[in-house]
Amino acid sequence: MLRLAARRVGLAVPILVGVSIIVFLLMTILPGNAEAGLVPEDATPAQRAAIRDSLGLNDPLPVRYVAWLVEALRGDLGYSLQRRREVADLLVQAWGNTFVLAAVSAVLGITLGLLLGYVAGTRRGTLVDRVVSIVSLAGLSVPSFFVAIILLSIFAGGLKMFPSGGATFDEGPIAAIRSLVLPVASGSLITMAITARVTRAGIVDVLSADFVETLRAKGLSELEVRTHVLRNAISPVLTTSGVQIGALLGGSVLVETIFRWPGMGQLLYTAISSRDLVVVQGATLVIALTFVIINLMVDILQAAVDPRVRGAVA
Amino acid sequence: MTQAVTPVLLHPGFGAGVPVEARARAAELRDEWDAADQNVDAQSFWKETGKRFLANKVGVAAAGVVLLLVVGAVFAPLITSADPLVGQPTDRLQNIGSPGHVLGTDEQGRDVWARVLYGGRLSLLAGFVPTVGAALIGTIIGVTSGMLRGVVGTILMRFMDVLYAFPAILLAIAVGSSLGPGLTNTIIAVTIVFIPPVARVAESATRRVVVQEFIEAAHLSGASGFRVARSQILPNVLNDIIVYSSGLVGVAMIIAASLSFLSLGSPPPVPEWGYMLNSLRGSLYTTPLVTLVPGFFIFLTSVAFNMASDALREAMDSRL
Amino acid sequence: MPEAITSVQAEQPGENGNSLPKRPLLELIDISKEFDVRDNGRRATLSAVNEVSLKVRTGRTLGIVGESGCGKSTLARVIVGLHAASSGEMLFENRQIETTGRRPRKIVEQMQMVFQDPSSALNPRATVGESIGFPLRVQGASKKEIDARVKQVITDVGLPASYVGNYPHQLSGGQRQRVNIARALALQPKLVVLDEAVSALDKSIQAQVLNLLADLQRDYQLTYVFISHDLNVVEYISDEVAVMYLGQVVEEGSAKALYENPRHPYTQLLLSSIPTLDPAQSNRDEPIGAGDSEIPSPISPPSGCRFRTRCPFVMDICSEVLPPRVEAAPEHIVACHLYSEGAERNDGAVAAAAS
Ligand SMILES: Nc1ncnc2c1ncn2[C@@H]1O[C@H](COP(=O)(O)OP(=O)(O)OP(=O)(O)O)[C@@H](O)[C@H]1O
Ligand code: SF4
Ligand SMILES: [Mg+2]
Questions:
Q1: Does any domain span residue C125?
Q2: Which residues have CB less than 5 Å away from ligand 3 (the ion)?
Q3: H/E/C letters for each residue in C256-277?
Q4: Which chains touch C (3 or more CB pairs under 8 A)?
Q5: What is the DSSP string of C220-257?
Q6: Helix (H, G, I), strand (E, B) or coil at B313
């Protein structure tokens, strides 16, 4: 088990390096990006060159990448001139808020999805099944920001049940939880939809396999049989859950913006609007790293749960 | 395709030297057996898939909706006479069903129905073009690395893995914000996001196909690797890629709409559904239903594509 | 011995002239093929084919038998050039041909293969006609030429010409195998390697296809390498037979001599003359290898004679020295220490030990 975890971590390292290279390139290679916001609009070419020089922008790319990476590894992701703050400071705060939002959404979405998928899969062809199928297809097809706007118009606008803006734990737990409700609802919908679809397919698959009959024939109670079925159907759910969390993290950019939740997404949004590229770069890097690490953990977890996966890796 | 039941022909020894009568009997049987074979109408995989798809009501309805949306976007000027770009300031924020404005007006008094129709042009384009582009490029990358394996294949797929390590929307945002706003850049960003998953699908389908013996047979006929890829592998991986890609159109629209929601899409005033949704957000509490209109169209298109894609998958799955 | 050869010839229909059959169309010299594999996560070499030397005579059929996994298919692929050999040489029509790299198209086209698995041997998206015609298309033949040739071969393999428009899933197993054969013949090759060409078919269909192969050999003047694990089928169709064990050829000779008087302990085991000499208890019809003691892995084959772990006559020398190829009788080669010059035991001793 430990060896397997070590192998997986080993495989993730080149991916992490690749991710950092891409983030670096995206923000630097394109003309004008690197010094954007640093050089006054009306600078003469000579002034421009001087500034580029002083920033080390005329060094060869690999040198600049290594320099950037070393700084990043030491926790220095640059300084935002617009915000007048260290990028790392901004990110730490935002990351915590996003983590809370994404984690609650993931737990809720996956639990509900499992439940719906299980109900639909075991009652294949019934009305319940059809309703779940339609709901999950709809959930899959609706942009999270659209859900957010609908929820906002109903619950914050019409009914005034929940606040439209985000509060954090600084303002007391009740306020924070109240302001979490709507963002979580809009973020977890797609997770729920995908989980329900995958679970349903898995259950239908397992139920049509011979071993269920064998279990019944062996005299196992219905509850025990159902536990077996669920356990066998859960592996594909785990497989997709990594991608789902990615969707949650990515989707948070929009959901957070709409609900003014002070997380990575909102930070990214404001940074994009003000072309604050140091922040965009830092936020992109941190979200991508988080995603890779979560996927890694899901991988290892899956191998722990499902011996077949373990065999395939070894 | 019935086959005559034939008795066991081999005599117990079945050795060399005594094949003559067995041969005669076999020849006889061969004729009998050939005669029993009816010549079934040849049906290609694609024709049968088409038939099956047309038999699926949900799939056909979904495809119909897609078609309607496309027609609406293309022939927008014939459907409405209202100008999508210039509004009547006096007509600001009309609700749905108000006279002259079926779907109301926006904060600048522009007709939302006209803007939805015209907006479909950019939105559908942003859904289709990246999907088709990514399907093409991803197929080339996936089939190449599936066939070559070795160093080239590994490098290509590891590169895909790296791109795949970003959450889809985030990668699109990162690429989009580094390229700057605009429809072309949105399309490029979404294409880049979709290449890795398509390449993975193509690669695993290719791996499944290349180990089959007809590929070896094709190599034995002296065909070049490219020719084998084109004439033998491609027709056998295309179905997987088409099913997968058709499910991406809806996602592409959502991502593109997200980008323009974040003002990374085509610059105003040209209408686009994601951007419309964002700009109508301000009037959420005055004319909430109008605000929801562009979102509803994104949703409708995406649902239709996903349903059509599901139907297509079923139509292709049922055989071989 | 010359008489023996002539008599074999006399049985062979369509054979003309005494000089022809002696000349090998294809000669393998010490062909080996190793695969790099992972064994429990560690890198390892799998010796699939080891130092195989064989001659395939023009217009004749060389049968290759052996248990599953002994390297028959690998050898077949090395012969036609689908696998690069790790070492060794090949002569085709007395000229050396590439064994480790890409061969010129002219050579590739002259050696075709009929594959083992009828379900994967045909492109499911191509019609029968397209599959058979593909090699011709590659050659750049015109559509008219292709149509004519496809029609010709498809009737030659005993299918109605109207089948050209059908898809593989519409055909039965036997019909599919005929299409496979037709495709191999489309380019008019000299050598056809048939890898388990009838194994997946019902016994009755097997007979039809075997007879078809015999007819085609005569009409198209083909040379066959016929691979199977079914001893009866190999005996039926082959002129010469080679027995493979764990990647090596342990015995080869004329079909008649080898079946009537098997020399190598493994061949004897296969033919079940050991341990029972009673034909009533013979299990020649069953897939060989079933129920026998475990076959060693080709990843770390036994030293010396690879068969020694299962051999009833194993001696000290067997684990130390690779048994040399010995001509135990004219044209009958055995690789076993029982027949080495130095060894004291001989043919008689084996028989004595067996009884
Ligand atoms: N591409 C490959 N890579 C690694 N090992 C291989 C490969 N092809 C074959 N082998 C191994 O080489 C050995 C011989 O395989 P081969 O398919 O030639 O046997 P065979 O005699 O044809 O068996 P069968 O009767 O089952 O077809 C086996 O141990 C097999 O696992
Ligand atoms: S060499 Fe030895 S072990 Fe091998 S077959 Fe002959 S007697 Fe048996
Ligand atoms: Mg084989």
A1: yes
A2: C 73
A3: HHHHHCCCCHHHHHHCCCCCCC
A4: B
A5: HT-EEEEEES-HHHHHHH-SEEEEEETTEEEEEEEHHH
A6: helix
Terminal-to-terminal C-alpha distance of chain B: 17
Cis geometry, peptide bond prior to residue C13 (ω within 30 degrees of 0): no
| Ligand 2 atom at minimum distance from C308 CA | 3
Write the single-letter amino acid at C329: A
Please state the φ and ψ torsions of residue C261, each to the nearest 5 degrees.
Answer: -135, 70
Asked if the bond preceding C21 is cis, omega within 30° of 0, the reply is no
Distances (CA, A) of B220 to B89, B281, C105, C116, C152: 73, 64, 9, 15, 21
pLDDT in tens, C251-265: 999 999 998 888 999
* Residue C49 shares a structural domain with residue C149: yes
ipTM: 0.81
**C122, C36: one domain:** yes
Q: Give strand pairing partners of C38.
A: C43
- Among A101, A82, A87, A104, residue whose Cα is nearest residue A259: A101
> Which of C250, C307, C345 gets mutated to test ligand 2 (max ligand atoms within 8 A of its CB)?
C307
When CB atoms are compared, the residue of B173, B250, B310 closest to A253 is B173
Contacts of C208 in chain B (CB under 8 A): 9, 26, 29-30, 33
Single pTM value for the model: 0.81
Question: What range does the domain containing C316 cover?
Answer: 262-354
Q: In terms of CA atoms, which chain A residue is nearest residue B288? A: A153
If residue C340 lies in a helix (H) or strand (E), which one and from where to where? none
User: In whole angstroms, what is the distance from residue C322 CA to residue B152 CA?
Assistant: 40
| C323, part of any domain | yes
Q: Is C250 in the pocket of ligand 2 (CB under 6 A)?
A: no
User: Of the residues C258, C277, C294, which one is the last residue of a structural domain?
Assistant: C258
pLDDT in tens, C30-76: 999 999 988 777 888 999 999 999 999 999 999 999 988 899 999 99
